[in-house]
Specification:
The chain is of the alpha+beta class. Helices cover 19% and strands 30% of the residues.
């Protein structure tokens, strides 16, 4: 995983976090903790450089995001990469939140403002705890219901400091509370456009092969190969579904590849070949009713990728870098993906044919 692309990604990630800290340090330093106008988390500004972990609890789930000096990583997901932009936005928002008005101190009224204990049944609250390098808590806040404002004025949020009965209406809002654990991860796996795919060969567990191929680099559509005699594809676009399996591919969940063995007798293998010679091998297995994939890319043929050799598709793209990035993201991991994303690979030849004889 020590590729040039991964190194660049590391630098970009570090810069993004640094910018977030700078943004936090640029905010007014409120010290009051019990007065209107004071900061919700008054020590976050001065302690931000010691910040090590962000713990988020909601919907019965907990995710711990740890900063390792280069990346934010999700501890409960085997330290998979977390979404730096989303974490940075959270930190900046918390640093800027200030108290507008004190509300109830009665626990029986917490539910209506959605600031109840986030671990309680059917809780709609979300708790964010900030931990420093020594394991000490910088601050912890329960985020509740939003108060929407009309016009350009920003929205407000009902909040409660963990362990404090006082509820406050605070200026500012954190991202949508419907976010799940996977939304804090880097969800993008790869995004290879269909037009860059020359051929997809799918091998089913029973040995059947389905091949979809582009007749020429400039051809607008792919074609299903080796159709049965007197049979026709269901439509002109039937084969094109195969070219899109690596387009905007995103994860729903992630696991260490070693912890997610794929059954040999039910694993589908697809080899996606690019117009300029790169290949990506996909292993697909349905486990407990959901689709999981493992990916591995191989570099393009340098002679084919050389500009001017022929009228290839998108020679301006650095395909070596694309494959490097895919491998850096995928090596050692299994990804749960949406059923629709890999649906074409599950189709047998009979599923691709028009009803009735051709012509």
């Amino acid at each position: 995983m020590q590729t040039k692309t991964f190194t660049i990604l590391s630098a970009v990630t570090g810069v993004a976090v640094l910018l977030a800290i700078v943004a936090i340090l640029g905010q007014p330093r409120f010290e009051s903790t019990d007065m209107e106008g004071g900061s919700i988390l008054p020590t976050l500004v001065k302690d931000s450089e010691r910040l090590k972990t962000v713990v988020i609890r909601q919907n019965g789930e907990t995710i711990s995001l740890d900063w390792d000096g280069k990346f934010w990583r999700a501890r409960e997901k085997h330290n998979y990469l977390a979404n730096t932009e989303r974490v940075s936005n959270l930190l900046v928002t918390l640093a800027k939140m200030t108290k507008i008005e004190g509300k109830t101190k009665l626990p029986e009224r917490y539910n209506r403002l959605e600031v109840e204990d986030p671990t309680s049944k059917n809780a709609r609250s979300r708790q964010v705890s900030l931990i420093d390098k020594d394991g000490k808590e910088i601050g912890s806040v329960v985020l509740g219901k939003k108060q929407y404002n009309i016009g350009s004025q920003g929205n407000n949020t009902y909040v409660r400091l963990a362990g404090d009965p006082q509820v406050w209406l605070a200026a500012g809002e954190v991202e949508d509370s419907s976010l799940g654990v996977s939304d804090w991860l880097v969800r993008d796996i790869t995004n290879i456009p269909a037009g860059a795919v020359a051929r997809v060969t799918v091998t089913h567990p029973n040995g059947e092969k389905v091949v979809s191929e582009r007749p020429s680099p400039e051809a607008p559509n792919m074609v299903v190969q080796r159709l049965p005699k007197s049979a026709a594809a269901a439509s002109d676009g039937t084969a094109d579904e195969y070219g899109r399996v690596l387009t905007a591919l995103t994860l729903e969940d992630v696991a260490a590849a070693a912890d997610k063995p794929f059954p040999k007798d039910s694993t589908i293998t697809a080899v996606v070949e690019g117009v300029v010679g790169w290949t990506v091998t996909i292993e697909l297995a349905e486990i407990d009713g959901v689709d999981w994939v493992k990916l591995k890319g191989e570099q393009p043929n340098k002679s084919m990728a050389k500009a001017g050799d022929s009228k290839m598709v998108d020679l301006s793209t650095d395909w070596a870098a694309v494959i490097d990035a895919l491998n850096a993201r995928a090596e050692g991991w299994a990804f749960q993906v949406g059923a629709y994303q890999m649906a074409p690979l599950k189709k047998a030849m009979t599923d691709l044919l028009a009803k009735g004889p051709a012509g």
